[in-house]
Amino acid sequence: xxxxxxxxxxxxxxxxxxxxxxxxxxxxxxxxxxxxxxxxxxxxxxxxxxxxxxxxxxxxxxxxxxxxxxxxxxxxxxxxxxxxxxxxxxxxxxxxxxxxxxxxxxxxxxxxxxxxxxxxxxxxxxxxxxxxxxxxxxxxxxxxxxxxxxxxxxxxxxxxxxxxxxxxxxxxxxxxxxxxxxxxxxxxxxxxxxxxxxxxxxxxxxxxxxxxxxxxxxxxxxxxxxxxxxxxxxxxxxxxxxxxxxxxxxxxxxxxxxxxxxxxxxxxxxxxxxxxxxxxxxxxxxxxxxxxxxxxxxxxxxxxxxxxxxxxxxxxxxxxxxxxxxxxxxxxxxxxxxxxxxxxxxxxxxxxxxxxxxxxxxxxxxxxxxxxxxxxxxxxxxxxxxxxxxxxxxxxxxxxxxxxxxxxxxxxxxxxxxxxxxxxxxxxxxxxxxxxxxxxxxxxxxxxxxxxxxxxxxxxxxxxxxxxxxxxxxxxxxxxxxxxxxxxxxxxxxxxxxxxxxxxxxxxxxxxxxxxxxxxxxxxxxxxxxxxxxxxxxxxxxxxxxxxxxxxxxxxxxxxxxxxxxxxxxxxxxxxxxxxxxxxxxxxxxxxxxxxxxxxx
Length: 601
Ligand SMILES: [Zn+2]
Fold this sequence. Notes:
Layout: H1 2-27, H2 33-60, H3 67-88, H4 98-121, H5 124-152, H6 158-166, H7 169-208, H8 217-238, H9 243-271, E1 286-292, H10 312-317, E2 323-325, E3 328-330, H11 336-343, H12 361-367, E4 371-376, H13 387-393, E5 397-400, H14 413-418, E6 427-432, H15 459-484, E7 487-494, E8 515-516, E9 518-522, H16 524-529, H17 531-539, E10 544-546, H18 550-557, E11 584-585, E12 590-591
Parallel strand pairs: 1-6, 1-7, 3-10, 4-5, 4-6
Antiparallel strand pairs: 2-9, 3-8, 7-9, 11-12
Helix pairs in contact: 1-2, 2-4, 2-8, 3-4, 3-5, 4-8, 5-7, 6-9
Bound molecules: zinc ion.
């Protein structure tokens, strides 16, 4: 009898092991010898413990008891590893999502044994609510992963989790409404209620099937140990290493690293040496840097042949000899934070500097004797300050439109803030637009809905309108600064572009999303004071450029010298070394030579 039992357990364990391990191998990629045997050894005891626990409990209950536990286990076993495999199989040579399987199996072992033991001491209703709630929470991550995969055709990625961290509640709401609609959100809410109801009902019926159980001592001890150790191991050790939790940890650690920025920044700023230019403006002057959002030069009439004249002001000024339009500029990444943490600091795709140890363009301007002002129509980011907000906060004055509930959050509101700038000192002003961030319809007042119906969501026309509005705001900033702030130089570039008729997708980066606008305005006085810088900028206007080099370009426009300014990286310097062949994008992954203009429209 005992021998038969042991044989039975061994055969079942072997079958479970074979099934799980085969599945693991099939959903992994490029497993070398080491991970293969490591997981091989990990899966053996796991399979035996699972079969033993199942067999002991099954003797005193029925199959019904396991339904909800199997549901949660299979959701973790299947969803992440399969969506991951489908997404990365072609492009990622090695991956292994074993912890999703390990968590699924050990949590199955731990929880089935735990509930079985608890049921002896607690009221059934309490046990049912406890386990149903836990299972409901466990089902949520796989459900979100499935929905994400359904929407984007890819597995949840680090970039997507990062967006989640950086997005405030209002933006999330807007994003969800835009992508799922009220109907979709209602359907999801109803589905969640049904799932919870199903869990309660099934668990209630299942616990009834537990027969009056008097287990022998050995089995009782085994189940108790399994309940405690497997639950502890699965939630304490395996769960934090599952795919989705690894993503969250990475993003969390990333932001922790960003916190260090504050720590290093004081010292970095103190140590920074900046040599001011030999000549300066006859009276206090202003230099303005405008950061656009999601503006693609492919859709801007000043840069490209477009159907609609989306940028009439800039197109007109392109004939003005004070304006220099750069025709071959690119983003370093189609992600606001990643692009701007490079654009605004020494860190770029071509050096290995850390963001938190890099000098910023605000530091340079301050040391060059400018009063610095940061005016932003972007989010401040609730609890986790994004790197951009951190840089902004180092300015002498920093304001965000969303910090004042009375300010309408159109970029035009920044003009009102600009009017508060004191013109009796040298000013360096950064304006951060919301530009053409989706949802495009929300980015401009109704009177700027030049194309299409303002009530109807037509992505390309709405996008054109947002560019048209940005063009207007830029013209107003230029006019005001010229008339009131002794404007000496104004630079505009975008963090990245976008493809307006696609669903927002964090990972697919065609070059339309990477081609950005860049222009420089120089006053007549500036041109006379700094003829070499002026000449260089004009000569370089058709050269290739990536926006992680904005920092160096601004150092050049400020005409400073510093050990923290490398002239060979500055398009404002005759020493500029980069070419189309040596520049890269997607954080160094893609050469600019891969941009084949003709294939993209
Ligand atoms: Zn952006």
